[in-house]
Design goal:
The complex is a heterodimer of chains A (291) and B (254).
Chain A: H1 9-17, H2 20-46, H3 49-58, H4 60-69, H5 73-94, H6 99-120, H7 127-132, H8 140-159, H9 161-169, H10 171-176, H11 181-222, H12 226-251, H13 255-273, H14 282-290
Chain B: E1 11-20, E2 23-33, E3 38-42, H1 49-57, E4 64-69, H2 74-79, E5 83-86, H3 100-105, H4 120-132, H5 148-162, E6 166-170, H6 178-193, E7 197-201, H7 205-211, E8 214-218, E9 222-227, H8 228-231, H9 234-240, H10 246-250
Parallel strand pairs in B: 3-7, 3-8, 5-6, 6-7
Antiparallel strand pairs in B: 1-2, 1-4, 8-9
Helix pairs in contact in B: 4-5, 5-6
The chains are: A mainly alpha (291), B alpha/beta (254).
Chain lengths: 291, 254
């Protein structure tokens, strides 16, 4: 390792920026992180972590089929993501099997189908980049897709921000005052599928669920206001992405894993030192010190 | 507002049935309530009280029967904000990062534009509602920091801000302090004078005698329905609670 080359913080940050692929990776990953972080607030409050896991794994066969047919991979991923949720709902309703079992059963089935398809379809699909992400090798068409999907999700979440908050908090009241709960349910699922699609480029299918729940969980420990929670969630997601990419560049580590680990460390920090809800309650320590 | 001179029933449920995936939760249930009436909904856990509420708000579909709210369908009652539902304290996520003000403002969502931007009138309605439940000092308090009674009052304020003519209250007196209980009973009298119709479920027999003009005893279907003085008899209560004697239910203090 050329340790001396980043003895100063300045060169630690600026050196990677001289590479075109790094600039692209930093920008795209920040965008993806922002989208996933935004959605993350809703998912953690709604208790949809397992659903996020299910959808993100279920997009696998969609990605493979889309690649094989030369279609945009986001289209395939989206169809299989929403399809998996529909199938989960159907099996739950028509059988006596409990919901978490059905979710686990469906998404592993889809995921397995994806892996089998990769081994069968001879193409230039790089299994490793699907499973673990490849933010450093992102192509121009992927960039366009990612920007388009990200904007779409951000616009949808912004328009229906308050309705979605109400839906997560008290769906019965929403229904009682004539708000279309069915629509909001599928809107949130659609955004989840889309976010999973863009997220998998950054950290891969296996870890994308972390992008969808960890920032929200971190923010939940730090605030009692919904708006602040979204802001903190987005910021912590972006910061983790930047840290992850820099660290992976300098120490030659897997990028996706580094991003998620950075998120995990930020969560642990909040878990230990959050002013109100942390184990050590930093605020109290400070207050005690002052007085 | 169309209040006292209203010809029809506020709530008119005829022979309604609700089943969840083939499992019957409620069958052949009837209920007719007029403006200004307070009705107690009494039954065991799992007797269909919540299901009854869900059917009236349209949260579940009825498989048989007919529900008219102010002479119209449940769907149009939703559009007109006619019904307000006040949940049980256990029925909501008290750790949700939301303030008293925001919860009460949710009562106005149904009549706002798609972005739910509060107009001056909405802000005023929320202010007034919060004042009526005596929570003006807690406008920006997160609901997680409230006591059980304060939280109950927050949701009552939401129903007031909604300006609904029908209030459905799930266990309004459970887990609340004396002050809240007194405030709720005062509000009931005001609501009655305003011509609102109230349907409340409760486990507490004393509250039924104290507040309810009418009582609906249910156990998957209607066991008895009518004026509290006539229907709320030890025999009927025993039947409703599957043979358990009312002495036991009333508890030692009665």
């Amino acid at each position: 390792m050329e340790l001396c080359s980043f003895l100063t913080l300045d060169s630690f940050i600026t050196d990677p920026l001289t590479h075109d692929f790094m600039r692209k990776a930093l920008l795209m990953s920040s965008l993806v992180a922002a989208v996933c972080g935004l959605l993350s607030s809703y998912l953690t409050l709604k208790g949809w972590a397992l659903m996020g896991d299910a959808v993100s794994h279920s997009v696998m066969p969609g990605v493979v089929v889309a690649y094989a047919l030369g279609l945009p991979f986001s289209l395939g991923a989206f169809i299989f993501g929403v399809g998996s949720v529909a199938l989960i709902g159907f099996i739950k309703q028509k059988s006596r099997v409990k919901e978490d079992t059905v979710i686990g059963l469906v998404f592993t089935g889809f995921f397995a189908l994806g892996i089998v398809l990769v081994s069968k379809i001879k193409s230039n699909i790089d299994l490793h980049s699907i499973l673990f992400g490849s933010p450093l090798g992102i192509s121009l068409s992927d960039v366009k897709q990612t920007i388009f999907i990200s904007l779409l999700v951000v616009i949808l979440l912004s328009i229906f921000r308050k309705d979605l908050m109400l839906y997560c908090f008290d769906p019965r009241h929403a229904k009682t005052v004539g708000i279309n709960v069915f629509f909001l349910h599928y809107l949130l699922l659609t955004c989840l599928s889309l976010a999973a699609v863009v997220g998998l480029q950054s950290v891969g299918i296996i870890l994308v669920v972390a992008m969808l729940i960890t920032p929200g969980a971190t923010a939940y420990l730090l605030t009692d206001k919904f708006d602040n929670m979204t802001v903190i969630s987005v910021l912590s997601a972006i910061i983790s992405s930047l840290i992850g990419i820099y660290v992976s560049f300098w120490f030659d580590l897997e990028t996706g894993g580094s991003i998620v680990l950075a998120q995990t460390f930020i969560f642990l920090f909040a878990f230990l030192f959050a002013p109100r809800y942390g184990i050590f309650k930093l605020k109290k320590l400070f207050v005690g010190y002052k007085s | 507002m169309e209040t006292i001179n209203y010809q029809n029933f506020r709530i008119d449920a005829e022979n309604i049935c609700v089943d969840y995936n083939g499992k019957v939760a409620l069958y052949d249930a009837n209920l007719k309530l007029k403006p200004g009436q307070i009705c107690g909904l009494v039954g065991m856990n799992g007797a269909g009280k919540t299901t009854f509420f869900n059917a009236l708000t349209g949260f579940v579909n009825i498989s048989k029967g007919k529900i008219r709210i102010n002479g119209e369908s449940v769907r149009s009652a939703q559009k007109d904000q006619t019904i307000a539902y006040v949940p049980q304290n256990e029925g909501i996520d008290s750790q949700f990062p939301i303030s008293v003000w925001d919860v009460v403002m949710m009562g106005r969502y149904g009549s706002m534009n798609i972005f739910r931007c509060p107009r001056e009138s909405d802000v005023q309605a929320v202010k007034d509602a919060i004042e009526r439940v005596d929570l003006t000092n807690h406008l920006s308090t997160p609901i997680g920091n409230l006591s059980g009674g304060q939280r109950k009052r927050t949701f009552l304020a939401r129903a007031i801000a909604q300006r609904a003519s029908i209030l459905l209250l799930d266990e309004p007196f459970s887990g609340v302090d004396i002050r809240t209980e007194k405030l709720i009973s005062e509000l009931f009298i005001q609501f009655k004078n305003e011509g609102k119709t109230i349907l409340l479920s409760t486990h507490d027999m004393i509250h039924v005698r104290e507040f309810c003009d009418l009582v609906l005893l249910i156990n998957k279907t209607v066991v008895a329905y009518g004026e509290t003085s006539e229907v709320f008899t030890p025999e009927n209560i025993t039947t409703t609670f599957g043979g358990i004697s009312p002495d036991f239910l009333f508890g030692p203090e009665s």
